[in-house]
Amino acid sequence: MAGSSVPIIDIEDVGLDRGAHLLIKRALRAVPVGGRLAVHGRAPHAAVHLAAWARAQGHRVVLASAGAAGAPSPLIGWVVRGAAESGRWRGAEQAGQPFAAEPGAVHARPRAAWGLAARGATVEAGAPEFDFALSAKEEVWADDAPRLYAQAAAAQWDPATAIDWDAPFDLPPEVEDAVVQIMTYLIENENAALVVPARFLGQVHPHFREVVQVLAVQVADEARHVEVFTRRATLRGRRLGLSTASGQASLKTLLDERDFAVASFLLSVLGEGTFLNLLGFLQACGPDPVTRQVARLAAQDEARHVAFGMAHLQAHLQHDPGLRRRLAAAIGRRHDSLRQTAGLNEEVFDALVLLAAGEWAPKAIAEGHARVQALEADMAAGRARRLVRLGFDEREAEQLSALHTRNFM
Amino acid sequence: MSRSPLVLAAVAYDPKVVTIWEGFKAYFEGQGLAFDYVLYSNYERQVEALLDGDCHVAWNSPLAWIRAARLARARGQQVRALAMRDTDRDLVSLVVVRGDGPVHAVTDLKGRRVGVGAVDSPQATLIPLAHLREHGLAPGVDFEVRRFDVLPGKHGDHIGGERDAARALMAGAVDAACMIDANHLLFAREGLLPAGATRILVQTARYDHCNMTAGPAAPPEPTRRFERLLLAMSYRDPAVRQLFDLEGLKEWTPGRVEGYRTLEAAVDALEFYDRDGRILRADYRY
């Protein structure tokens, strides 16, 4: 029955209950559909198991008569290769390429059925369609995303060791109170900065792997910021400070925004951009080494968040210049909805002045006040600069920057 | 033109049965065949419904096919096996013993305990017990039958009984266990029957399993179309592949009835049904 051209696999004393099917499958790959493979072996149940396995795989099997000879192991039978396995991969598609720099790596419209498959994987036809709301490249992609992710992954820091929590300092009680109030304010802002990307994270098609990775790290960054600000606030045994209704009202408008481009514009470009100045201020004016360290480390992370927001909005605007009007309108809308609120928590403002003053002497307070005013001016200028980079003219950029929430984030 | 559907009956032995037949329904409807299905909790009720004309075709276990054929003959009606899965052909059941145990020949089972599946399981009860009987060992007389009844009425489609018998074998609660060839391999891979821990004492003759049975009320033209559509379904079609994977086949093949002789003989030998399809087993509850 077996002609000289029939390939042979000898599974020796390994049964199909011990993994021999791998050997048979491998040998079958070289056999055309309808072709035969002679299977030799001497495991006790090999014939029974070969028949059961082949049947389930869609192959035919012709068992040799009992006591068949063969070398080195006796012939068990022939497997006639069926078409099922090759049929499974008919119509399968390669879902792009793993590395973004490769040609054709990132598709403009990845298929819904590519779903969770690795980018670059061969995806069987007939997979379920996933409903990722953000599945158009121009909505989320930035060519800089791979670099920003690599940078983010390399820059992760451990709160337990990156900050010298035992650094000695002794602040007057009211200055410590001011630090606690600012930390309390920072935490609620960082909660918003955590929740907003987290909500969009699950909507981005995983084909845009680097975008998902950047957002995931962003969420992890904010989780760490919440931790270190909480730890600094409570370092001297104080209770946390005040949270105002208007502060939360301002942050809630960020969470209510359903459009990814608009949300990341308001959060990353304007809010976190403004926070960069604030954290820089705390790094410079913080009254103790721990406050200065947590501000410095958080600022490093926030700078990346701003960079990604800018990068994907610039890419999006190139595809859709009309987005610029939607972004401008969003600032106006947010300003209108917050018109009735009090703006920055007075306690936060006063705490910043006191930190900058460092003491209660009237002259020092006046200097502190001036420095906080300068901070606000820097914040406005920074926002305007980023708006210009997004293609707004200078006059409009200044106007829009002025409409940004007085709550900073 | 009437859109009266061809009605298929199937037994709900597992929740996935709904997914399977909803999928087939959508597929056949997509091919222009009006199609619907009804589910029964057991094969006995399904076969009676098929013969009564409550449904047109039935996805029958081999035992259900035998009863349908007998009932039809007794009533002067006809049933026909339209198609079967490629995986329904040429199956073998095994009587398995512990590798280190004292049972080396069928006759060694005398006075010992043999674990079987559900009372109505062709592969794990009827065929292997009849096989032992042919070897001169009367079940319940020459050896004790330990039955592992899981979901009787479902003709052993639920393999829980076979698995329980295999577990009992390894625990030493029985001296032999009966199962289909594929489940011996499956249980080995699951680690329930570790490789080398069991020996196959004896294997039965080959037999066939399920078939798609057309009943006396099956409308000729839709039934022919159904048969043609079944046989044309291809594993290469992603929509079909998902259903085939769930139902455990790679292709439908034409129905054949020669493969039921082994089970016919077992049904008679063990007095499960009479020649007219009446249930004889008093302890059969479904």
The largest sheet of chain A is: 4 strands, mixed
Rg for CA atoms of chain B: 19 Å
- DSSP summary, beta strand count of chain A: 6
N-to-C order of helices and strands of chain B: EHEHEHEEEHEHEHEEHHEH
Percent strand of chain B equals: 15-25%
The helix content of chain A, as a percent range, equals 55-70%
| Chain pair with largest interface | A-B, 25 and 30 residues
Coarse morphology of chain B: globular
Give the tally of β-strands of chain B: 11
What's the average pLDDT of chain A?
Answer: 94
In helices, the fraction of residues of chain B equals 25-40%
Multimerization status = heterodimer
Q: What is the number of helical segments of chain A per DSSP (H or I, 4+ residues)?
A: 15
* Uncertain regions spanning at least 5 consecutive residues of chain A: none
Strand order of the largest sheet of chain A: 1-2-4-3
User: Average pLDDT value of chain B?
Assistant: 96
Taking Cα atoms only, what radius of gyration of chain A do you get, to the nearest Å?
32 Å
Question: How would you describe what is shown here?
Answer:
- The complex is a heterodimer of chains A (409) and B (286).
- Chain A has 409 residues and is mainly alpha-helical.
- Helices cover 57% and strands 5% of the residues of chain A.
- Chain A has helices at 20-28, 46-57, 84-88, 137-140, 145-154, 159-162, 173-201, 209-233, 245-256, 260-285, 289-319, 323-337, 346-357, 362-389, 394-403; strands spanning 8-10, 36-40, 60-63, 75-80, 93-94, 122-123.
- In chain A, the strands form two sheets. Chain A has a four-stranded mixed β-sheet with strand order 1-2-4-3, covered by helices on one side. Chain A has a two-stranded antiparallel sheet with strand order 5-6.
- In chain A, helix 14 (362-389) packs across helix 15.
- Chain A is elongated and about 105 Å long.
- The mean pLDDT of chain A is 94.
- Chain B is α/β, with parallel strands linked by helices and 286 residues long.
- Helices cover 37% and strands 19% of the residues of chain B.
- Chain B is built from nine helices and eleven strands.
- In chain B, strand 6, helix 4 and strand 7 form a beta-alpha-beta unit.
- In chain B, helix 2 (43-52) runs parallel beside helix 3 and helix 4 packs across helix 9 (261-269).
- Chain B starts with 5 loop residues before the first strand and ends in a 17-residue tail after the last helix.
- The mean pLDDT of chain B is 96.
- At the A-B interface, helix 2 and helix 3 of A face helix 6, strand 9 and helix 8 of B.
